[in-house]
Every structure is written in C-alpha cells, then in structure tokens.
Amino acid sequence: MWGLLRPSTCVSLEPVETAFGLKRRIDQSSCNKDYSCLNGFCPSFITVRNAEPRKPAPSEIDESVFEKLRDPVVANRQDGTENIILAGVGGMGVVTVAALIGMAAHLEGKAASLFDMTGLAQKNGAVYSHVRVGRTADAIATQRIGRGEATSLIAFDLVAALADESAATLAAGKTRAVLNADVGPTVDFQFSRDFKIAPDLMEARLAQRVDRERMLSINASSISATLMGDSIAATLVLLGVASQYGLLPVGPASVEAAIRLNGVAVPMNLRAFRLGRLYVHDSAQIEAMVGRSRPAAPFVPKTLDELVDVHSARLVAYQSELLARRYRALVAKVASVEEAIVPGSQALATAVARGYERLLAYKDEYEVARLLSDPALANEIKSTFQGGATLSFNLAPPILAGKPVNGRPQKREISVAFMLPVLRMLSRMKRLRGTPFDIFGYMPERRMERALIPEYEALTDRALKQLTPANHQRLVGLLSLADDVRGFGPVKKAAVDAYHAKLEQMEAAISSSASSRQAAA
C-alpha cells in the first residue's frame, strides 16, 4: 500500500536543451508506465494510454558496407584468462552481452565463467558482469575478477564504470577499454534541475586507471538511436567495437552465432554488432551515415540578439506585444550600460534576458490553457505515439482542490474531450491577466508571481548603478538567480523563498565588498 501512495523516483527523466534553457522530458523507451509519479505533484500535464511510442525508422544501410570488414586479432593469453568487466545499468542488456560472450567461447571450445552483479538493480541501477575466458577450465581460478586483474573493460555506462566494483579491477598498462560516451541521466537530475554530467571529465577520471591510448570512446547510444531507430541496440554496437578493437577472446563469427542462438531481435542485433565493428574499421563512414540520418537539433539561441528574439516572440504569444516591448526595453538598457562599463561583455544582459522573461511569463491558468490547447501539442503527440491513444489531462485547479497527497496538491485526471473546449476558451481570456477582472489573479500564488516582476526591475536598476568591472561577475550571478524561480504551487513557493534568501545574501556580500574597496582607496 505504501508503494501505491508514495511517488516514484522516476529514472526516465532526461535533460534536453531548448530555446528556453534546460528542460526535462520522459524517455518513453525506459518509462515503466506504473503511473506512480501521478501520486506526487507530477510536472506532466498529459497521460497517454493505449498507444505505444513511435520508434524512429532505422536508416537504410547497404549490407555491402560490412563486406570490407576483416577479422580482428582475438585476445588470447596463453598462460591465463582474458578477464572482461562489463559495466552498465539495468535495462541495458549487460547480462545478455555477458551470456553472448560466454556462448561464443563455448562454441570455440574454450572455458568461460560468468559472474553477474545485479544487486537490486531492475532499471537504471548499476549492473556488472565479470567474464573470464580461458583455454581450459583449470585456467579459471575464481569467478570474480580481482583488483587490477581486468584485461578489458566494456563500459556501457561511464557512471557505473567509475564505481569501485568496476574501477578496482582496472590497471594501467594492462586494461584496455571501450566506452559509451553517451551518459544516461542519473538520479541527481531528478533533484537538481540543472544537473549535467560531463563525459569528458568522467573519461579523464577513467584515464587515471586505464592509459588514455588504450581507451576508445564512441557515442554508441546516439549511433544506435539514429541508425537503428532504438538506443537499446547500443550494447551490441559497443560489443562490436570491443570485438574489432581486439578486446574479446572470441572471434566475431562466434559472437554472431551466439546472437542467432539467442533468438531475440536477431537482425537488429547482428546489424548493431556489425556497425560497431565498422566504426573501428572506418569511423568516418559511420559518422557520415549518422550525419545524414540525424534529425535536426532544436534551435538554441547562441547570441543575445537571438535570445531576445525568441523570448520576445514567446511573450507576444503569452500576453501581448506590449509585454514584449517592456522586456526588450529593460534588456536593451542593461546591454547599453554594460557595454559602457565592461566593453565587449554581454553576460549581464544575457542574465537579465533569461531571468526577466522567466518572471514575466509565469505559468498561470491562462498559459497552461494556451499550451495545452495549442495544435502544435496535438501534432507532437500524434508524431510521438501510435494511433488509438486515450489522452487525459492531469490538472490541479484550485476550485477542485482535494486532500493533499504527500504534502502537495493532488492532480486530477480529466478527459481531454471534456476539458479541451474549456481550455480553448480560457486561453482566449489571457488579456484579463493582471487586470481587476482576472479571477485567478487574487490567489496568493499569482500575487506572489506578479510581485516578483517589479522587484526584479528594481534589483536590475540597483545593479546597474553599482556596476563596475570589479563586481561585474558577481552582479551577473545576482541577476541570474531569477532562473531558479520555477515550478507550481508549493514547489514554486519554496523556490521563491530560496531565491529571496540568496538575493539577500548575495546583495549583502556585494555591498560589503564595495565598502571594503572604498575603505582601501
């Protein structure tokens, strides 16, 4: 019963860069669809049932490209075993890959030992497989690979590879490694909205245990998703890389035979394995194939002018051109003063362009109605899911507030067919926002949101009056704090309280620093 009442810690939330900053989306291929997230104050407004996600169509690949592959050198120690550590997370197929290597060894008449470390991992938890392959069973003394004994590392996930279960087995000058440079989201992203993993730093940490020249890194998940239409094939892509790179103690023909014997998604797995081999043989060809098939990346503003244009257009749709002019005027004022005092910098103006727009376009009932009734959303759902879907909105309107769940408002599931006409009507009423006729504007949360706007404008004016080259970066940080004001209901209230506390602390520090400089002068 407790499991039904307690909201889940979703392992399918992943970051995505947008024109409006880092957002979250749900990876439909890993979502377990238990809907326990709805027991909390779930940020999702829509539930889709009775429809499978559409998978991207795999790229057309001419099988003749694999004909130029030559058999790699097979790792084969005469006086011991080849010790392979596989590191990944639940749901990737780590244990399956270990079994394929073991079966391939059996087909070649070699001895193999498989030791899987799955713990409590069912999905997104660390999973390790210790694979030992020797000429005879007598060569395999223990199942588990000891400290510094790994001859090969196949890192399906860099986070798991750096954990002690894997890292302790590695040894410089001995271990060779292939890495999946595409790092999946971790639990940290669920609690820190701006949390980002830096694959380069993680590879550098791994290079402290495995010599850099003995490592090969590949964006296996991206290649798999683009060319195979499903990122789940990344493990077989990386297995192919390991094979062609000479990390496996079995030949590629034996691995392919094991794939066929396994009998699961045989054509896809064979192609993924061969793509991995081809990457080692001719990485430029794989990159060219990916480049031709990769969908266009979402537009992300790179300059201040682009940022202002994108946000201005959003403010027009949100409310009116008048609001957009108010926004542009403040950003232009900041940019002018900044250029005069810190020539060549637009950091302060960029901070205001992001933070001010976030406060101006607070997501109230009118905005939620506009977004949910936008035809673009309906088209996105159609392109993301197959036909026959049953849609419902997840809303927590104050007039229907029920008993809180886990200390937060309870969202109610309402039929799209019933609610959509209401939302369309509400969307057309957006010009009432902030007027005496705005019935939602009298709620404490809306009053709080509106008060933040003139407060930020006054804060910006104070910052411009005290701007110097010495305190420039501190003021950039000060005016960037508004970007943390996010969420709904109690989530937003907590964010606003934290925002005000940080403002007070930072302004006091800036003022103290200025006083110290004046005293020294």
What key phrases describe this protein's structure?
alpha/beta; globular; disordered N terminus; three-stranded antiparallel sheet
What does this structure look like?
The protein has helices at residues 2-5, 94-107, 158-162, 164-167, 188-191, 199-207, 220-228, 234-244, 252-262, 266-281, 283-293, 304-318, 321-341, 347-360, 365-372, 375-384, 416-428, 444-465, 472-480, 489-520; strands at residues 13-18, 21-26, 46-49, 81-89, 111-117, 126-134, 152-155, 176-180, 215-218, 390-395, 412-415. It is globular and about 85 Å long. It starts with a helix and ends with a helix. The protein is built from 20 helices and eleven strands. Strand 1 (13-18) and strand 2 (21-26) form a beta hairpin. With 521 residues, it is α/β, with parallel strands linked by helices. Helix 9 (252-262) packs antiparallel against helix 10 (266-281) and helix 15 crosses helix 17 (416-428). Helices cover 46% and strands 12% of the residues. The strands form three sheets. It has a six-stranded mixed sheet with strand order 5-6-4-7-8-9. The protein has a three-stranded antiparallel sheet with strand order 3-10-11. Residues 1-5 have low confidence and may be disordered.
Précis, in short:
The chain has 521 residues and is an alpha/beta fold. The chain is built from 20 helices and 11 strands. A hairpin with an 8-residue loop joins strand 5 and strand 6.
Strand content: 5-15%
Describe the largest sheet: 6 strands, mixed
Which stretches are poorly predicted, pLDDT < 50 over at least 5 residues?
Answer: 1-5
Shape: globular
Number of helices: 20
Radius of gyration: 28 Å
Total DSSP E strands? 11
Query: How is the largest sheet built, in terms of strand order?
Result: 5-6-4-7-8-9
Distance between the termini: 67 Å
- As a percent range, the share of helical residues equals 40-55%
Classification by helices and strands: alpha/beta
Mean pLDDT: 85
